[in-house]
Amino acid sequence: EMLRQMRVAAFFNGDAVNLDAASKRQAAERLIAQTLIRREMDLSRYPAPNVPEADALLATLRKEPRFAGQEKFAGELARYEVTEEDVRQQLLWQLTLLRFVEYRFRPAVAPTEQDLRSYYEKQFLPRWRKRNASTPAPSFDDSLSEIEKAVTERMLDDALERWLKQTRAQTRIHFREEVFR
Whole-structure pTM over 0.90, yes or no? Predict the structure, then answer.
């Protein structure tokens, strides 16, 4: 499972497959997080998305320039030693995870105006100026929906990370070191 996860991640990112010990450890950590999240989903009876939704994402993926045409897509699958089903399952997991994070953590996330203004001043404006040196930056009010989305996503990610850290601390996890060699 760990090797498949590594190959699928490399496929999505267009990176070379790296099977060294550090990469294996990172993949194992991701699988542990997925297992903990799946356990929480089972306990909360979270309704997972269905396969047709993943199929729609797969169809969109196939249209990316990197995969233009069925032969190119099949060639990339072969190069990374993954199957279309592996990719479909990863897309389904990504969709499931995004929705679960929204469902589980969104009610507790409420950015304040101070959070939004701080993001605007410290992150939004510097990035805008770097990309658009000759164009005046939009006002805070004109950028509010984009800022709210970015701050909320960051807060959701932080909430998930805190929950994972707490859950891992309460869970006994044993690594078999020989797997990482």
Answer: no
